[in-house]
Amino acid sequence: MTSLIIGHKGSGKTKRLIEMVNSAVEKSSGNVVCVEKETKLTYDVNYRARLIATDYFDVHGFDAFYGFLCGICAGDHDITDLFVDATFRIGSRDYEELADFLYKVDKLSQLTDTKFLFTISCDEEVLPKRIFDYCQKV
Known about the structure:
There is one protein chain. The protein is of the alpha/beta class. The chain has helices at about 15-25, 60-75, 85-90, 95-110, 130-135, and strands spanning about 1-5, 30-35, 50-55, 80-85, 115-120, 135. It has five helices and six strands. A six-stranded parallel beta sheet has the order 3-2-4-5-1-6. Helix 2 (about 60-75) runs parallel beside helix 4 (about 95-110).
C-alpha cells in the first residue's frame, strides 16, 4: 500500500509523518524506516526507527530514489513501514515523473509487503489523476 500526505509548506505534513512513524514503531512486529533528504528528524523520530538521509548517499532524482528504496527493501526483509519526508526535494518537481515513480513504488510495496508513505508539497489538483489509482491520500 502506498499513501500520500499532500499539502503546502507549513501545513503540518512532517509533524503528521513523525506521529505516524512513532505510532508504527509501537505497533510494528518488524522494522520501521524513515527516509529524509537531510538529517532534521533525529530528535523527533523514535530511536527504534531507522532514520536515513538521502543526501548522505548522494541520491538525486526519482530513478536514483527508486533504486535506493529497492536497496533498502532488499537489505532488510523485515521492514513493515517505510516513510519518506520531502519527496520533491529528493526526486524532482516533475509531476509526471512523480506519478511514474509512485507506480513503481506501489509495485515494490506489493512485492515486499511494505507500507510506504510519502509527503508531497503541492495542491492535490495539480497532481496527475492516475496517481490516485494506486495511491491513497491520508
